[in-house]
Amino acid sequence: MLKLSLISMAVASGLFLSGCQTTEVSPKPQQVETNSPVPQIVATPVDFGGEQITLKQAMAHPDWLGRQPESAYWGADSKTVFYKRKQAGSELRDLFKVSSAQTSEAVSLSDLHAVGAANAIYNKGRTLQSYEFKGNIFVKNLKSGALTQVTHSSDYEYAPQFLSDNRLAYRSGNALFAFDLATGLTKELVKLHLADKPEGVKEPNGYIAEQQHKLIQFVALTHKNSKDREARNQEIEANNASIQDNQFYLGKGKTLISVSLAPSGDKLMAVITDDKPSRSDSDIMPNYVSQSGDIDPVKARRRVADTKPMNSDVIFIDLAKSEQVTLSYDTLPGFDEDVLAEVKRENAKAKGESYKSEKAPRDINLIDTWGWSQSAIQWNSDGSQVAVMLGAWDNKDRWLATVDFDKQQFVSQHRLHDEAWINYTYNDFGWLNNQDALYYLSEQTGYSQLYVKPLNGKAKAMTSGKFVVSEPTLTQDSQFVYYKANKDHPGLYEIYRVNLANGEDEQLTDLDGLTDYQLSPDEQKLLLTHSKIMMPPELYVADAAPKAAVSRLTNTVSDAFLNKKLIAPKIVAVPSSHQGEPVYAKVYYPADYQEGETGKNRKAVIFNHGAGYLQNSHMGWSNYFREFMFHSLLASEGYVVMDMDYRGSKGYGRDWRTAIYRHMGKPEIEDLADGVEWMVNNANVDRGAVGTYGGSYGGFMTFMALFTQPDLFQAGAALRPVTDWAYYNDPYTSNILNRPDVDPIAYKRSSPIYHAEGLKNKLLINAPMVDDNVFFQDVVRLVQRLIELEKEDFETAIYPVEPHGFRQPSSWLDEYRRIYKLFKENL
User: Fold this and answer.
1) Degrees to nearest 5, angle at CA 17 with 16 and 22
2) DSSP one-letter code for 781
3) Can you give the C-alpha Rg of the chain in angstroms?
4) Which phi-psi region, left, alpha or beta, contains residue 534 (left: φ > 0; alpha: ψ -120 to 50)?
5) CB atoms within 10 A of CB 110
6) Is the pLDDT of residue 22 over 70?
7) Are 388 and 430 in contact (CB under 8 A)?
8) Using CA atoms, how far apart are residues 48 and 34, in angstroms rounded to an integer?
9) DSSP H helix total and E strand total for the chain
10) What pLDDT is recorded for position 26?
11) Are the C-beta atoms of residues 38 and 15 closer than 8 Å to each other?
12) What PROSITE patterns would the database entry show (predicted)?
């Protein structure tokens, strides 16, 4: 059982949270001015061993940590849990199962098809389960345990779906089929063609053709016979039930984005767009250390500066009537607004031009976000209603719309507009079961919250507050929605549920860390993936009820890791000099730090997490586990280390996220400056002995700090860094900076290459050469710029075989030896 208490106490400048060997609090409490009360919490301590961590061990292959459980999911019986675990010394994963007896055993390769899947689906009565395995469809009878293999072919069949009549539909290519479990008959429901509809036998057209048919009997007879055959085939198809001909033609030069079949089996939504190349011939990345020994021109993604506008067509297909219609966006509020008018006007003025705003239809597509497991098209229980989530190409609007099938048009149910950009997370939505009402997440208040809206009524907020709701799960009876939220503190995530009938909100877990969940198929239990600052994730199970006991399922953390003497960070609320909310940060205090010490003689390092929109100052295990151990090593040698969730980070609401709109690298560096000030005033840090480093977005921030506030840090290391945002990808960059053809001002003031003349202190640039995320070209261009500026205080290290995320322990070790040396020599 894992049940941990929270201890309230006042701490320096706000909140400290610690999962360490000691509950000692330092330094003295101070008042923090914020827009809301700052929680005062410290987590229960965790004891560790006494063996000092080394840099080589910290950068070793993570197998040594114990190979934690991955991709866990419930079995159909709601008693068995399946999870993957990496093999030692190999990148292969084995599948394990663990039951209520809490004994794990490996699933044999011959049985992998029989154990279900994380995205398995169930029929309405929850008597059948279906899933896809290696391109084939399976159905399991939950009462008898009988397993039926529905398909067995070299084609790829996927996306199983139980229909209202208990048939099982699935997709293969651009066709959808229905399998009758009672008769074994498979029927093609529809086949979609990305082509124009065949015109059939054509009549002669033009003078020469018409005369040919009149003068030559053989030509006329051949034409007549073709028309007779065509007419006969149409009569057979119309009168013979054994023949299926539900074929629809979506247009030549199109590509299929999404297909969604109604549970009733008689309606279909299809989304298409123009079939354009996703990259040009010049979008390559040279790999100098290839398998063949030659230079391998690896294909790479397109840059934001080269991306072209994209618009999609949503097509409603009535299978019963064999009719199709393309739905217009003109019923969506704001579909033709010039939402970028002010941005265009500012950029035009900078060029000595003027801009006249005019209304015009905007390019609109399905919401398509990474990390999203659901479809942007959702049908209600009986297939009589459908909801679609759409997003504008300019990233400023999101619409949740239903379809009026009689009028053949969209009906807007909710418009979320953001002058900065619509978040690519917190877009979950669906239908309440057996009700004409929707539930959805929205950031309309500034924080992602849960709403319920009847189709013809007003939306009702089911949650509210200055916290973030995510991962909603609706129960079959539509009584509860389970969700994950950080209510007590931005870095503390627990599981909750809200009663949709009376609005009663209940906290289900109290584990003091980072917790994810899955509701069991019978909706009686929770599968929890839980971690702490000092402890990697493990699996737990609890009843789906408040204050339920928690049982641990896995114990994979190695003794080697537990024996390491690691310094736990404390989470601090750093007062901001630029806005009302504090900046939450992890602080690693030196092992010999004494509360109240003076002299300003401590060296310090600020780490900048990557991704920009990511949260790292939380109370769970970090993806930056190597950095965690490196920071502990630095702290053991007398450094104070800070890891800030600067503005733009995840978990703090809409305003925090969009603070960097059109000027990346300014608010974040202001926050770093506040971090330095806090360490000087509260941790005895010498202002003249502070360094910074980070990778990806963190590398970009290192550049911006050293280039735009050159006296803030005495040394910095930029790893796999962005130097010019016009060269980065479109889905991420266009949200924050719009696109270069529209908003060049934003790109110039946000890209380090335009500020390189500001460098005056030591800079280390580490760059992987086969980086398919931030191209090596970024570093090459900046290095040439620094050379031309005659800068002396920089050096570059390259990693010929590494992608964006390093794979070789030797590369990790080399990189961090250089960072360690940089700080040792310059702070």
Assistant:
1) 100
2) H
3) 30
4) alpha
5) 7
6) no
7) no
8) 35
9) 13, 48
10) 29
11) yes
12) PROKAR_LIPOPROTEIN (PS51257)
With contact defined as beta carbons under 8 Å apart, do 440 and 429 qualify?
yes
Average pLDDT for 501-523: 97
Q: Looking at residue 13, what is its pLDDT?
A: 31
- pLDDT over 60 (residue 745): yes
pLDDT mean over 240-254: 84
CB-CB neighbours of 108 under 10 Å = 10
Q: Which two tokens stand for residue 745?
A: 């001002």
164-217: pLDDT as tens digits: 999 999 999 999 999 999 999 999 999 999 999 888 888 889 898 889 899 989
Q: Tokens 């398998």 belong to which residue?
A: 291
Strands 93-98 and 81-86, sheet pairing:
antiparallel
Mean pLDDT to the nearest integer, 465-473: 98
Written as one letter, the residue type at 648 is G
How far apart, in whole angstroms, are the C-alpha atoms of residue 192 and residue 190?
Answer: 7
Residue 152 sits at the vertex; the CA angle it makes with 146 and 157, to the nearest 5 degrees, is 100
Is the confidence at residue 390, as pLDDT, over 60? Answer: yes
| Sequence-ordered list of residues with C-beta below 8 angstroms from that of 604, at least 6 positions apart, any chain | 639, 640, 641, 642, 676, 679, 683, 685, 686, 689, 690, 691, 827
Q: How many C-beta atoms surround the C-beta of residue 658 within 10 A?
A: 20
- 500 has which bridge partners? none
Q: Roughly how many angstroms between the first and final C-alpha of the chain, as a whole number?
A: 46
Q: Which of 641, 647, 686, 648 is nearest to 820 (CA)?
A: 641
Q: Taking the mean position of all CA atoms in its chain, how far away is CA 145?
A: 35
Residue 611 CA, distance from chain mean position? 11
Q: Is a pLDDT exceeding 60 seen at residue 696?
A: yes
Residue 453 CA to residue 387 CA, distance in Å, equals 12
Average pLDDT in the chain: 92
* Mean per-residue pLDDT, 29-34: 30
Contact 805, 771 (CB under 8 A): no
* Residue 400, φ and ψ in degrees, nearest 5: -105, 110
Q: At what angle do helices 697-708 and 667-682 cross, to 10 degrees?
A: 80
Distance CA 506, CA 693 (A): 41
pLDDT bucket at 320, cuts 50 / 70 / 90:
very high
* H or E stretch covering 255: strand 254-261
Beta bridge partners of 190: 176
Task: Kindly tell me if the per-residue pLDDT of 680 is higher than 80.
Answer: yes
Per-residue tokens: 288 = 């100098």
**Cα dihedral: 672, 673, 678, 681 (round 10):** 150
Name the pairing type of β-strands 157-162 and 168-172. antiparallel
By residue count, the chain amounts to: 827
Residue 30 binned pLDDT confidence (cut-offs 50, 70, 90): very low
Interatomic CA distance for residues 455 and 436, integer angstroms: 6
Average the pLDDT over 793-812 and give the result: 96
CA 387 to CA 430: how far, in whole Å? 8
62: tokens are 């993570």
Tokens of 308: 């072209």
Within 10 A of 515 (CB to CB), how many other CB atoms are there? 24
